[in-house]
Amino acid sequence: MIILRDISLRRGTRLLLDKANVTIQPGQRLALIGANGSGKSSLFAMLLGELGADGGDIEGMNNLRLAHMAQEVETTELAAGEYVLRGDAELARLRDAIARLEAAEDYAAAAPLHSELEAIDGYSAERRVQRLLQGLGFADGAWQRPVSDFSGGWRIRLNLAQALMAPSDLLLLDEPTNHLDLDATLWLQQWLQRYPGTLLMISHDRDFIDATCERILHIEHSALNAYKGNYSDFEEQRAERLANQQASFEKQQERISQIEDFVRRFRYKATKARQAQSRLKELERMQKVAPAHVDSVFSFSFPAPDKSSDPLLRLDQATLGYGDTTILSGVEMTLRPGSRYGLLGKNGAGKSTLLKSLVGELPLLAGQRQSGEHCRIGYFHQQTLEALDMDASAALHVQRLSPGAREQEVLNYLGGFNFRGEAATSPIRPFSGGEKARLALALVVWQKPNLLVLDEPTNHLDLDMRNAMEVALQAYEGALLLVSHDRHMLRNTCDELLLVNGGVVTEYSEDLQAYERWVLSSYDDTPRQPVAGSVQEAAGDSAANRKEKRQQAAAARAQLRPLQQRIKKLEAEMARAEQTLDALRESLADPALYSEDRQQDVAALTRQEGELQQQLETLEADWLEQQETLEQLSG
C-alpha cells in the first residue's frame, strides 16, 4: 500500500499540489489526469525520487520494484534488443557476469550464475524482447539495429518496451500512447490488462483509460481528487459535482442548446444527417457529462470554408510509393464536401504514404490525382510541429499567414486555444509538446480549409483540448480524413472507415470493435482470421473485377448525380428562405413597427411571413422526397 499524506509540491513559485492525500492499494490500476501543466509529471518525478516534496510524507515505497517509462531520448550504439533487455537490471547483471567469467574460461564460477539466470526465466529474455518490439510496431529485425538509428518517436517506444521488460511491483507510464498508432495502442492495452502489479499512468486517451484503469486521480486547483471507476465514470461523477454550482449549470445548458441547435439545423441535410442522428443518440449522455468540461479553457470552431468544389480531391487508379518501391496500388478515392473518413491500418501498411500522396507532398508513381478548383487542404502531421519557428510568437505565426489581420483579431482567436497574454506574444521555444501541437492545429484552422487531413492530431493534447477539438470537428462543414489512435475521436467525428491493408485501400464495413478484435488476433497463437467482407476479398480481387466494380460505381454515380444536384439546389433555396424569414421576424419584433400609422406595414409583413413559411414547408417536403429517393437508390 502506498500512502501520500498531506503532500505539497511546488515548481518554482507555482503551487502544484496543496496538502494532497491518496491511498493506492496493491494491484490497483489508476489513471492520473489533469490539464497540461497541472503537475502530473512532477508527481511522477516525486515518486521516482527525482523531486522532493515541499511538505507531507510518502509511505510504502520502500522495497518496491519500480519501473517507469523514461521521456528523455537516449542516444546509444546498443542494439535495440539489448537496450530493451537491459530494462531488467538483474537479468542484464547476470548476463554480463556470465559473459566475463566465460571469456576468462572460469566456467565453475559461471555455473551458479546460470542457475540464477534460469530461475528468473532469463533464457527466454530475447524472445520476450522480440514480442515486445513486435507488439509496439517495430519491423522484423529491428531488434538488431542500434538505438541511434531510430527517430525520437521510435526511441520513446524503446523506452516503453524497456519499462515493460522490467519486473516491477509499481509501473509508472507517462502518456505511453503518445507515439503509438492504433494497432500498437491496442496491443499495449491488452498487455496492461494482464499486468499483475500496481499501475499508475498519465494518459489523455479516454478509451485507453476505460479499458485499463479502475480508478482516476484528477489534479485540479492544486488538489488531488480520487474517483472510483474508469474515465467515463469519472466524467459523470465530476459532472454531477459541478452541476451543483450555478455558474457551471448555466454553461451546461448553453452547451446542450448548441447540440440541439446542431441537430435541428442539420438532421435533414444530406451531408450532416448521419452526424445529427448520432448527436441525438448521445444527447442524453452529454446532458449528464457536459459539465465535466464547462471550465475548459479551450473554445474554438472551424470557420465555414469560403468556397468549395465537388469533388474536392480524387485519386484514380493511383499507384503510390517511393522511387521503384510500390506501397499501394489501384487506389480509388473521392473526397467530397461532407466526406468524413477514418483511416485504419497497421504500422507500415501505407497510411502516411496515402496521406502524403493525397495532399500532393508525394508524387504518384502511376494514375491520376485531381484537385478541385476550390480545394483548400489543411494538413496536420507530427512534422508540422518541427516546422514551427521557435523564436517567433504564436501571434507572429498567425500574422505571417495573414499579414493584413488585425492584432486584436489574432489575439482573440489564439485565446480560444488558450494562448493568452505572454503565451500569445512571447517566443514559443519554452512551449511543451502539447502547446506546440495546439499552435500547429490553430494555424491549420485559421486557414479555413475545406478538406482536413489530420494525422494523429491528438498527440500531446490533454483531455479538455481533445474534447474541444472533437466538438469543433463535429460541426465542421468540410471534408475530413483522420488517422488517430484515439478511438473516441474516430467514433464521434467520422462517418465511414477506410482500411489500408495488403497494398490496397478498401472501405471497411465493420466497426472499430471488430477492427480491434482483428488486430489483437494477430498477437495470439491462434491462426489469424481475416476481417469479414473487406480485407481478404479486396486482396483477392482480380484486375477485371476491380474494373467492373469501378464501371458499376461510375454508372451509379451518374444515376445519382441529378438527384444530388437537385438536393443541393433545394438546400440552398431553403437556406435563403430561412435567412429571409429570420430577417422578417426580426422586423416584426421591432416595437416601433406597431405604431398606429404603420398598421398596413404590419399586415404586409405578416402576410409575407405566412407566404415564406409556406414556401419553406414546400421546399422541405420536396427535399425529404428527393432525399428518400436518393437513399433508396444508394441502398
Give an account of the 3D structure.
- The protein has four domains: 2-234, 3-Layer(aba) Sandwich (Rossmann fold); 245-287, no CATH class; 313-541, 3-Layer(aba) Sandwich (Rossmann fold), CATH 3.40.50; 551-634.
- Helix content is 48%, strand content 18%.
- α10 (246-266) packs antiparallel against α11 (273-289) and α22 runs antiparallel to α23.
- It is globular.
- The termini are far apart.
- Residues 553-622 form a coiled coil.
- One of its GO terms (molecular function) is DNA binding.
- This is Probable ATP-binding protein YheS.
Number of domains: 4
CATH fold annotation of the largest domain: Rossmann fold
**Helix amount:** 40-55%
What is the second-level CATH architecture of the largest domain? Answer: 3-Layer(aba) Sandwich
- Which superfamily, in CATH terms, is the homologous superfamily of the largest domain? P-loop containing nucleotide triphosphate hydrolases
CATH class of the largest domain: Alpha Beta
Number of strands: 18
Cα(first) to Cα(last) distance is 59 Å
Oligomer: single chain
- β-strand percent reads 15-25%
Number of helices: 23
Q: Given the C-alpha coordinates, what overall shape results?
A: globular
Q: Are there runs of 5+ residues with pLDDT below 50, and where? A: 525-543
Strand order in the largest sheet: 5-6-7-3-8-9
Rg for CA atoms: 28 Å
The largest sheet, given as strand count, sense and whether it forms a barrel, is:
6 strands, mixed
Mean pLDDT: 83
